[in-house]
Write a structure and sequence with these properties.
The complex is a heterodimer. Chain A has one domain: P-loop containing nucleotide triphosphate hydrolases (Rossmann fold, 3-Layer(aba) Sandwich). Chain A is built from 9 helices and 10 strands. Chain A has helices spanning 49-54, 70-85, 101-112, 129-135, 154-164, 205-208, 210-214, 234-244, 261-274; strands spanning 14-17, 22-25, 60-67, 89-95, 118-124, 140-145, 171-175, 192-198, 218-222, 249-252. The longest helix of chain B has 17 residues, at 2-18. Chain B is of the alpha+beta class. Chain B has a domain at 2-65 and 98-108: 2-Layer Sandwich (hypothetical protein PF0899 fold), CATH 3.30.2320.50. Chain B contains 2 helices and 6 strands; from the N terminus they run αβαβββββ. In chain B, helix 1 crosses helix 2. A 3-stranded mixed β-sheet of chain B has the order 2-1-6. In chain B, helix 2 (38-48) links the parallel strand 1 (23-31) and strand 2. The chains are: A alpha/beta, B alpha+beta. Strand 3 of chain A pairs antiparallel with strand 6 of chain B, so a sheet runs across the interface.
């Protein structure tokens, strides 16, 4: 491991195509001049005072006026265009860890892949576990391991799409890293953002993580089969969602028992027929 | 920690724009409603800028408070949380500031 910044090979993002088993590094998060030819040699910093007197440094202020996330936003727009051209519906699924995203995807893919192809870009900090689970449903899946990163970024999704080559009019599910903070800031080029909140979490999650819930098009309240055993106040939760986001649709589901899933499938069908470019398929 | 990703973006953009010149100062704007902690960015900046033309540069962070205007009563008011209502009770508001994540300028020698 690098003692300078704590990075190591296992902390860098990688992408694994589950069908071929091929893993490639995604170098995008590296800053161009931060390439770590270890050990760091900082002799260039050891200017003597005489050096400074030899040449006169003139300070100059350069206006930049640029959004910090402009690069990601540009790449996300490019993904959106790529998807629209092919009439592909891409959904960005976000939640805290353990909300049941992968179980929901397993069930959804099993039920819908007879009607249209579904492929998955699976984001996790480490392991291929979720991608292997989803592979068993028969769908195409790439696993992106973000290493030190806590969210997917648009360039990772671009590489994932390149590897998956999803067919036209299909659906791409992007399962983001389980985290309700960071993924909110990063547009991936998806058509809609779906937040999954399970009833084993607190009903005040929408207020605690307002950025995430504010950016959602759809909120799925999962594991409702467990409601009889919990003190989760679902009406209060719905009020909190509404306080943060008045336009998001909310559906109550159980990926385990299948309750409420038909409404989720109808939502997907409606968004497929709208098409990513706002036109019909 | 998403501040690491944010800081990498700052360093990348400034490095590109500096074209190899030594950078001594960078000024950024971070809105108080942006979910980005300035202290975490400062911490990451020292680490991420090592070995780049920004190494040793001072990072200046301008924190921008949240503000919104109300379409019901017409006032402009401070916004402490993303989901705050106007003091008049209306939620028909437009956020004016507080979500900034911008690089303003840099000083090169």
């Amino acid at each position: 491991m690098c003692t300078t910044c704590g990075c190591s090979d296992s902390m860098r993002p990688t992408m694994t195509n589950i069908a071929t088993g091929q893993t490639i590094p995604l170098a995008a998060q590296e800053t161009p001049e931060h390439s770590h030819a270890h050990p760091h040699d900082h002799e260039h910093r050891s200017h003597s005072q005489a050096d400074h007197e030899d040449h006169h440094h003139e300070k100059k202020t350069v206006l930049l006026e640029q959004a910090i996330l402009s690069k990601n936003d540009r790449l996300a727009e490019r993904n959106r265009g790529w998807l629209a051209e092919r009439h592909i519906l891409a959904l960005n699924l976000v939640s805290s860890p353990g909300s049941g995203k992968t179980t929901l995807l397993e069930k959804t893919i099993a039920d819908l892949q007879k009607e249209f192809p579904v492929s998955v870009i699976e984001g996790d900090q480490a392991t291929l576990h979720d991608a292997e689970r989803l592979r068993r449903t028969g769908c195409a899946v790439v696993q992106i391991n973000t290493g030190a990163g806590c969210h997917l970024e648009a360039d990772m999704v671009a590489r994932g799409l390149e590897s998956l080559q999803p067919s036209t009019q299909s659906v791409v599910m992007i399962e983001n890293v389980g985290n309700l903070v960071c993924p909110a800031l990063f547009d991936l080029g998806e058509q809609a953002r779906v937040v999954i909140l399970s009833v084993t979490e607190g009903e005040d999650k929408p207020l605690k993580y307002p950025h995430m819930f504010q950016s959602a098009h759809l909120v799925l309240i999962n594991k409702i089969d467990l409601l009889p055993y919990l003190s989760f106040d679902i009406d209060q939760c719905l009020r909190y969602v509404n306080m943060v986001n008045t336009s998001a649709q909310v559906l109550q589901i159980s990926a385990q028992t299948g309750e409420g899933l038909s409404a989720w499938y109808r939502w997907i069908q409606q968004h497929r027929s709208i098409g990513p470019d706002g036109k019909g398929l | 920690m998403h501040e690491l990703g944010i800081t990498r973006n700052i360093v990348n953009i400034v490095t590109e724009q500096a074209h190899g010149a030594k950078v001594t100062d960078v000024t950024v704007e971070i809105g108080k409603l942006s979910a980005i902690m300035p202290d975490a960015v400062r911490f990451c900046f020292d680490v991420v800028s090592q070995g780049t033309s920004l190494e040793g540069a001072s990072l200046h962070i301008r924190e921008i408070p949240g503000q919104a205007s109300c379409h019901t009563c017409g006032i402009t008011f401070p916004l402490e949380e993303l989901y705050d209502s106007c003091p008049c009770g209306s939620r028909n508001i437009t956020r004016l500031s507080g979500e900034e994540l911008n690089i303003k300028d840099m000083v090169i020698v």
